[in-house]
Write a structure and sequence with these properties.
The chain has helices spanning 20-26, 46-59, 74-86, 104-111, 121-141, 156-176, 191-202, 218-236, 263-276, 285-298, 320-323; strands spanning 16-18, 29-34, 64-70, 89-95, 115-119, 146-148, 182-187, 208-213, 248-250, 306-311. By secondary structure, it is α/β, with parallel strands linked by helices. The chain has two domains: 16-44 and 154-324, Rossmann fold (3-Layer(aba) Sandwich), CATH 3.40.50.1100; 46-153, Rossmann fold (3-Layer(aba) Sandwich). The strands form two sheets. It has a six-stranded mixed sheet, with helices on both faces. Strand 4 (89-95), helix 4 (104-111) and strand 5 (115-119) form a beta-alpha-beta unit. The chain is globular and about 60 Å long. It starts with 15 loop residues before the first strand and ends in a 5-residue tail after the last helix. The chain binds pyridoxal-5'-phosphate. Pyridoxal-5'-phosphate (PLP) binds at residues 44-46, 74-75, 152, 154, 186-193, 281, 284-285, 312-314.
Amino acid sequence: MHSRKAISLANLPTKIEKLEKLSKELGQEIYIKRDDQTGSEVSGNKIRKLEYAVKEALDKGCDYLITCGGIQSNHARATAAVAAKLGIGAYLVLRGEEENELEGNYFLDKLLGAKIRFVTGEEYSNKRMDIMEEIKANLAKEGHRAYIIPEGASNGIGSLGYCNAMDEILKQEKELGIKFDAIAVAVGSGGTYAGLYYANHVNNNDSVIYGINVCNDADHFKGRVLELLKEISTYTGKEIHVGKKDIDIIDGYVGKGYALSRQEEIDFIQKLARQEGVILDPVYTGKAMYGLVGEIRKGSFNKHKNILFIHTGGIFGWNSFARALIEK
Ligand SMILES: *Cc1c(COP(=O)(O)O)cnc(C)c1O
């Protein structure tokens, strides 16, 4: 694929490991790709997208990154870390209220020196783009040139990070001598899924890419992924022709809602931590892997031999509500 430009910010390639005990328990071969280990300050999936988005920002001569997310956004934290590293500014529009107790990603945002504006859920849903444009205009008055990164860096350019991750997986398949028949990932804003799907398709690889949505519903994300596939093609020059029926989003694991945990999800995360020494997060990967294992138990994955789950990170998202559900 051509027209790809990125700066190097993540520790790549990330390892692929077999989950031996879980595989034995389920009677299927389960592997995990450690995109939670792309870095420490920048850990998780967003840094792969930022490698492309921030390159574009620097090429345009920008000295500020503006982005948005929930108060515990992994994406906002990774953006704050990248900005500090590059010596440019970060301005975060966060959904929530200034909390007395600094914790998790929000704590790190502060530590990294990001400027923060809090907005209500309603403002976030209806006018976050306007708010970011307003911040950009105000920064311009102070002589800064800002670059706006949308939620989750899930646009065409950000998704290129996961086209690249798919290419990385195909290379690792050769090195490991394993063919992954199914690849599963959490879906929050869709860019990770779209990038994997696009590169899987243009490489004529026959893996099935599964997304497990952690908010909204499958129909919403199928539509969103189709839009993102179009946006990706404006960078690569190659459109792919697929419809909603070709996009495999597994619904039914949102639970209580975005960033809200159920006891059974936390019990699952705790069991896996003790079984494999792998820690998932309560907001994305815990729900997605809980869903994947649930589907495997139901037999939905019987046609697949080797299954790869992408651990997209989120360690700093262990909020106090999720922590309270841990059995001590
Ligand atoms: C953002 C995020 C996801 C979802 O990725 P999208 O590209 O937004 O769908 C999954 N896991 C973690 C830990 C995340 O922070």
